[in-house]
Structure formats: C-alpha cells, structure tokens
Amino acid sequence: MxxxxxxxALIGLIPVMLMPGWVSAVVVAAVIVIAAVVDFxxxxxxxxxxxxxxxxxxxxLGDSTHCILSLVNDSPRRLRVRVRDAWxxxxxxxxxxxxxxxxxxxxxxVRTVLRPTRRGxxxxxxxxxxxxxxxxxxxxxxxxxxxxxxxVLPPFVxxxxxxxxxxxxxxxxxxSAVMIRGMGTEFDSLxxxxxxxxxxSIDWRASARSxxxxxxxxxxxxxxxxxxxxxxxxxxxRRCGDGTVFDAALEASLLLTALAAGAGDRVDVIxxxxxxxxxxxxxxxxxxxxxxxxxxxxxxPELYDADWEQxxxxxxxxxxxxxxxxxxxxxxxxxxxxxxxxxLPTLLAxxxxxxxxxxxxxxxxxxxxxxxxxxxxxxxxxxxxxxxSRSLQTRLRGIGVQSVTDSPEDLPGALADLxxxxxxxxxx
Amino acid sequence: MSAGLDVALRGARTxxxxxxxxxxxxxxxxxxxxxxxxxxxxxxxxMTSDRGEDDPLHYDSTSxxxxxxxxxxxxxxxxxxxxxxxxxxxxxxxGRSDTTLLIPxxxxxxxPGDIAGLESTLAENGNGLVLIDPGSTVESFTDRITVNDNLxxxxxxxxxxxxxxxxxxxxxxxxxxxxxxEYAEAEKGTSGxxxxxxxxxxxxxxxxxxEVAPGSARGQLxxxxxxxxxxxxxxxxxxxxxxxxxxxxxxxxxxSELSGSSHLVVYYPQQSGAEDTPPSTLDYVPSWFIAGAVWxxxxxxxxxxxxxxxxxxxxxxxxxxxxxxxxxxxGRAALSARSHDRxxxxxTLRTAALLRIAKRLALGPETRAPDILSQIAYKTGRDPAQIxxxxxxxxxxxxxxxxxxxxxxxxxxxxxx
Lengths: 428, 417
Known about the structure:
The structure holds two protein chains of two kinds.
Chain A: H1 3-11, H2 13-18, H3 22-42, E1 50-55, E2 59-60, E3 65-72, E4 79-87, E5 97-102, E6 107-114, E7 120-132, E8 139-144, E9 149-153, H4 162-171, H5 176-179, E10 185-192, H6 204-209, E11 214-220, E12 225-231, E13 239-240, E14 243-244, H7 245-262, E15 266-272, E16 276-281, H8 288-296, H9 308-318, E17 323-329, H10 333-348, E18 352-358, H11 361-368, H12 373-398, E19 402-406, H13 411-424
Parallel strand pairs in A: 2-9, 12-15, 12-17, 17-18, 18-19
Antiparallel strand pairs in A: 1-3, 3-6, 4-5, 4-7, 7-8, 7-9, 10-11, 13-14, 15-16
Chain B: H1 3-9, E1 11-12, H2 20-50, H3 68-76, E2 80-84, H4 87-94, E3 99-103, H5 112-125, E4 128-132, H6 138-141, E5 145-147, E6 160-161, H7 168-173, E7 176-177, E8 183-185, E9 193-196, E10 218-219, E11 221-224, E12 231-234, H8 250-258, E13 263-267, H9 287-308, H10 327-338, H11 342-360, H12 369-380, H13 384-393, H14 399-415
Parallel strand pairs in B: 2-13, 3-4, 3-13, 4-12
Antiparallel strand pairs in B: 5-8, 6-7, 8-10, 9-11, 11-12
C-alpha cells in the first residue's frame, strides 16, 4: 500500500462517476485489486544479504557521533528500497530514514548522525527495509537485527576544574617542605634565591660554593597509590538533580584520576556492587582518564546491595602497599554501620581511608521550606536525615576515616581539594 | 584494520528465528479482529432471523400464533409454496397460472392501489385469493362480503361450529373450533357465494336495523366464486395457527382450502411505509455524486492503510534503574504529621539550628547548650528568656503554634551574623 495506490484509486473515481452504477464500480475495483496483486508479486523480496553497521568513534556525552549502515544488493534484480536505521531514543538518531535505488551489485552507505542523550553502551535497534517495484503500488517490508554498539563516555563536566586544581598542586612545589620539614617530601633541585623565598629553605652549603644564595626546591611525593572504589549498588541509583548519584560519583572519580595521575600517582578504580563490575588502572596507561571513561561506560547502577567484604578484598588485592582508598558511596546509616564499618579495620590497617558521598540537594531544599505545618514536618524529617549523616561522619572521623560530602556538582572539586590537602601535608 | 577487530566492531545482519510465542503475539491482533468480525456476523444473523418470529400467522414463525406449521404441511402435501414479504414479488408470483394467493394477516396495511394491482393480476390469470380474518378490510378486496354485524352481542356461541353448507372442503372437514368474528354477504342473495360455519348456540340471534339484512348468508368461512377473483375468507385465524391447527377439523379445512391449486403464494405484508414516505433529499442528489462518495470509502481505507503502516517495530530503550531519593523523607514526614509528633519535629529542627549556629559562631563541639544560647542572645540582642523558650522549653500544642515557633526559630538563626 503506497500513495501511488491511493492515486490510482482516486483516478478510478473518474470512470466511477462518469458511469454510476455497481457494474462500473466493481470493474474499476477489480482492475485496481488485480494491479495491486500483480505488483505484489513483482516486488523483489526485501532481503539484503549485505547489511552491515559500522559504528563511529566513541564520544563524550554531549558530542555527536555517527554510524554507517552499508547496503549491498547481491540479488540480480534492481532494488528500490526505503531504509529505516532504527536506534533507541536515547541514541538521538537525527534522520533514520532514507530512500535508495540499487542496481544489481551496487553498494550504498547510509550515514546516520547520532546525538546521544545518555551515557552508556547504546545498542542499535533493527534495520527495516521496505521494497517496492517499478509500479510502486504495493510495498513489502522486513526488519533485521544488525547489532552495533556506540559507546558514549561520561561527560566529565568537572574537567574544567582540572587546570585550577593542577595549578594548586604545582604551587605545592617547594612549599610543602616548609610546612612539614623533611617528612614525605622529596628533594628536587637547587635554584637561585628570589625575594619571597623562605629563608629556611636556603641551602647554605650550596650557597657557599656559588656566589649567590641558593635554595633547595622540593616537590610533593610521587608514585603513591590511590584506589577509588565507586559503589554501583542500589544506593547509587538514587535520582539526584538531573542524573543519578552514580553519575556524580563517576565525575568525582574521573577528576581525581586526572589530578592524581597528573601528579604522578598511580590510580586504580574499582566499580562494584554485589560483584566487581569494572576495574581500571592508570598504570602503564597513556591517557588514564580516557581508559577509565571507557571502562566505566557500560556500567549502570543495579538494584543490589553492595558486598563490602568482597570490595575490601578487591582493594587489598589491588594494592599491597600503603594507598589512599577513596570510597565513593552513600552516607546511609544502615549500610555504613552494618556493612562498611565491619570491614574498615582490615582496610585501615594498611591504607588511609576517605569516604566521599553525594549530598542530596533536594534534602537541603526540603529542610529550608518551613511555611505551613506540613512543610515543617517535612523539613524536620529532612533535617533528621542530614543530622544522621553528620553524626555518621563524626563516627567515621573517630575511627580515622575522613569523609567529604557535597552536592553532585561540587563533590568532584571537594574530593580533589581533599586529595591536594592530603598530598600537601604528606599524608598519602 | 585486522580481521578480528573488524568482527568485534562491526555488526552484520543476523537471521535469528522468531519464536512461536512472539509470532502468536504479533498475530494476536489479527486473531482478535477475526473473532470480533465473526461474533458481529453471528449476532447480525441472529438478529435478522429473529425478525418476524412473533408476528401472528407469519410463515416463518414457530411461536404459538405463527403459521409455519401450516406452510410446512402444505409443502409436504406437494404444494409449491412461495413466501414473501415484498408486494412486488407477491404480485409477480401471483401472475403464474394455477396459483392461489394467501394473505394470512396484516391485510390492512395494503393500500387500495396495492389491492387493485394484486386483484387484477389474479383476475388476469384466473387465480384465487384467500384471506385469513381480514376484518373490515375485506370490503377493500370485494364489495360482496362484509363483516356480519347483525348478531346480538350477548350471545354465547358453541365452542365447536358445524359446516352447515354444501362446500365440499367444509363437508369433509366437519366440525371446527369457533372464532369471534363472522362474515356475511353484503347483499342478501348474492349468487355464487356460500357461507359455512355460522355461529350457533344459546343467545345467538339476528337483529334488525343493521347493514347486513337478517337472513343473509353468514358464517366463519365464506367461499365466493362469483366475483372477479375467486375469494375465500377464513374468518377464524385459530384454524391456521401453530397451536390450534390440530384441533377439531381445523387442519383439514385450511389445508383443503389452500391446496386447491399447485402453487401457493403466501404474502405477508409488512408495515414498512417506505414506499409511502415522501422522497428524501437523497433522491435529488445526482447518482454520479453518490457513486463518487461511495467510491471514496475504499479510498479512505487505503489512506488509513498507507498512513497506518509502521516502518518496522518500535525501537526499544533499555533504561537504567533509577530510585527516587527523597521518598523516604516524605514518608517519615507524613508519619510524624499523622501522629502529631510536633515535639519530635521541633526537637530535630532545634538541634539542627543549634549545630549550624555553633559552627557559625566558631564554638567547638564540646560547647554546652546553655553557652550557645547565651551567645545567641548576646549576638542577636534578644531576651535570653525568649531564646531559651524558643530553643529549649516551649512545647507547641497546635500546628499553628508549631508554625509560629519554627518561624521565630528560623528568624533568630538568620539574625546570627
């Protein structure tokens, strides 16, 4: 059924109206039906043996990519086809439909532009081929599974904070020696004294050898280990702002990876819930942030509870030497006191622990609305939640675990600041 | 690009077999449509066959008052019975030779023109006409027979009537059940007319001064051979009804009256009135316009099929799990609101405010509450008693009090520099 058949039927209006009556109507209808049936058998069956999808490059969320669908006409007949290159709505395919006239043996490539709206491994849907003959009264269509996956990396919005944090880290050069003399710092080089340098860092022995005053410069300790554990359990599936808590956790771990790898530390990232979902390491990696993004792309939070014993053993097996272990999870009283606290001693025995959690901005908003009694009760419930997480932080600080909570947008920066602070004080 | 990478990166067409359940699911729409159409057809057929079932003496009616038994019995006896509700068809069938036309009921709906047409057709071919209990309508068919009105109304006739006439079929049938109406000749002494089964019994007497003169031939069966059309009036419908046809000699009488010819046309006029209605506006519309309008219906069907055909199945989206976060907070708030736990809510808000104020005033965690309160009073310049009441002692009894107290608490907190 095509618009051509409709046109034919409308043209049939002329004889029907010129000769009103059942006979002429039946004759015209029979002619049209016979034409349609004949055309149906003239239509080449919509089978394209050469049907292939080649996905384009992986992109960060927000950029556009493409996928190329190639059609090869292996049949001896000419193929007039319309093609629908279907993708899931979140893949953001711009124009999925195209029309082709393929001579026998001819090949054509359809380029579909994709503007993904969601992070992850986006699967292509079916390819539908609709074939018609030269007459084009009737079309036959068929759908095929042509698998293809486009990887959309996390957006890494917080990379705009990276230059300022890296700058802060560089400023530590030479200054950290002043703060804590001798401990956890490495001698870097000697240079001439300039006004403003701390007199205590003057190397008198070297100054005596040369004509001018010479100061020692220091650099922050390098080749430390950082292990980031991202919790992908049901607590990370909480909606928070535009995305989920897990998205904010990914942002934080990406920024910390970029910063720490840039500062010469080795970063390992473990994504886990009831099982370990993904592991990435900056060791021997040219672009740790990219590698981590690729590893994290297909991971989405699942509605399981996290198995912290397994996570702890994964951390221990990842790094045998002293490391900074960052747990990006939720400050949920139940899970922290029953699941995390029992495994902390094992980790604390060898590592320094930091717990990062996303603060729900909705809670603060609810706590601020106090117009009528109903809102006051809601505000009280929200305040109770906030108090609970604050008391948890106090408890954690009591056993030597630092914690940082902030809104989804600010958590990456806050975690980076904590890392810089630890590095500056030589406590890594 | 190596071969292995090529395979990993690219996807080629697969020909996965569609499982039977999926096929059934996709065919479900069509199966459902077929079932719906089938049910519609069956219901329509039942509705149409229902029609006429309750009409008295209808040739298809199997109810007590119907006439199917009579028609079927005639057919069994070799009479070729044609049944119709259409006047034109009845007229056409009555035009054959050796035919009798039977109008079992509803003869009053026929117009004088219809009657004249039928009678002229019958007269041309020498065919007879049989009416069953036509009432006063009999005068439209002939001016020789009329309803007998010269009997005393209080009479109680016998339940069984005797023939009392020389008509052979009546003689053969013998006694029959008695009806309520009697017919008589319009003019006393009409030739060629015989009347059978007159009403008899106690109180049945003729009176004077009526249209039918006393002494006229009268009876429940009138056989008139003398008119333009041989006419038989069967005055009692019970003789032909399914329920009573087997009583007395009813069957014998009716069957012998109707099997006089080899063809019988049973015409059951219907109160349609379609032929009488004035011509509708449709009659003024030119036929080419109607033909075009009707032709547009299949065109619309094609439009629907063209526009409604989906270009492949809907694309699937695999959504990640998302949990609404603040639901628990709303749930707890609703619980405490329902239990009117004002003090608990106020306590939480006080604690949170005190902690925030202590942080802002740079007071350590070991600072005691009275010290914080005095600091607040000092910073805001408010009455320490009021501060103490708001932050510690006041207990609200109504929601309004709670609201006022919390508003004051929030204002004091905002006054801290």
